[in-house]
Amino acid sequence: MTSDTTSKSGLGTWSQRLLAAVFLGGQAMVHLLRGKIHWRNTREQMAAVGPDSLFIALLTAVFVGAVFTIQVAREFINFGAGNLVGGVLAVALTRELSPVLTAVILAGRVGSAFAAEIGTMRVTEQIDAMLMLRTDPIDYLVIPRLLACCLMLPILTLLSLVTGMLGGLLISTSMYGISDTMFLDSARNLLGSWDILSAMIKACCFGMLIAIIGCSWGLTTTGGAKGVGQSTTTAVVTALLIIFVSNFFLSWIMFQGTGSALLQGF
Fold first, then answer.
1. Is the pLDDT of residue 51 over 50?
2. pLDDT top residue among 11 and 73
3. How many Cβ atoms are within 10 Å of 155's Cβ, its own excluded?
4. At what angle do helices 224-251 and 98-106 cross, to 10 degrees?
5. Please, which pLDDT band fits residue 9 given cuts at 50, 70 and 90?
6. 153/147 Cα distance (integer angstroms)
7. 127-160 pLDDT tens trace
8. What is the pLDDT of residue 37?
9. How distant is the alpha carbon of residue 240 from its chain centre?
């Protein structure tokens, strides 16, 4: 009975915090439209989200591209379709792997940092002091992180795409005898401009979700150091869940629902 009550209480608290994150996202959009942006804080957050996350994102992309090529190239060669390996890798990386995996990396690295930093400020009453000084926490804390994620995640995704292709090219040429010309020509023929644009749209949406969830969980932190740890963990898990769910709907809109109509414009 106690376990069931605790589980229901935890789910209820999580639902309330998720609803608070939705309201926080709406408030952030209103403040952005009013042009309330602290550019110095935004530049600092962009450095934390972008350059500081670059190495781990590119290293992950290299091995993802290499592993995907290992799994696909042999089967395609057996079916006499070795000339399609580069194109299939390019489409898979662009539409799904690069934006999703890069977002997952940032959710773990950056989203947790947002929740921990702002959560610590909440439990030590620094945010209350900001309010006393008539400094809006949304303007000072949330919007810089939101802009940093929305601006830097597409760039990281694009760099991850290029790096993943290089990893796949290295494996296909060294292990399966596929020429680099054939590999790149296949990628160029199968990859469309809408595929790249859709990856940038996904990355921007994922960046917004990571920032809002991390900041919201930090702002709603209670219970001292233990609460900060719980908020950090829950923020990362929630961000990962929302990324996967939103990726399904974005993919359905772009490639199954209205995607065909959009594609005709390119």
1. yes
2. 73
3. 16
4. 170
5. low
6. 10
7. 888 888 888 889 999 999 999 999 999 999 999 9
8. 82
9. 9
Phi, psi of 147, rounded to the nearest 5 degrees: -65, -40
Q: How far apart are CA 163 and CA 183, in angstroms?
A: 15
> What is the identity of the amino acid at 236?
V
**At residue 201, what are phi and psi to the nearest 5 degrees?**
-65, -45
d(CA 144, CA 11): 30
- If 0-12 CB within 10 Å is exposed, 13-18 middle and 19+ buried, where does residue 247 land? middle
pTM for the predicted model, two decimal places: 0.88
Burial tier of 260 (Cβ tally within 10 Å: 0-12, 13-18, 19+): exposed
**Encoded tokens for 258:** 């209205």
What are phi and psi for residue 221, nearest 5 degrees? Answer: -75, 135
Per the rule left: phi > 0, alpha: psi between -120 and 50, beta: everything else, 35 is left
**What is the DSSP code (8-state) at residue 133?**
T
Q: Is 231 exposed, middle or buried (0-12, 13-18, 19+ CB in 10 A)?
A: buried
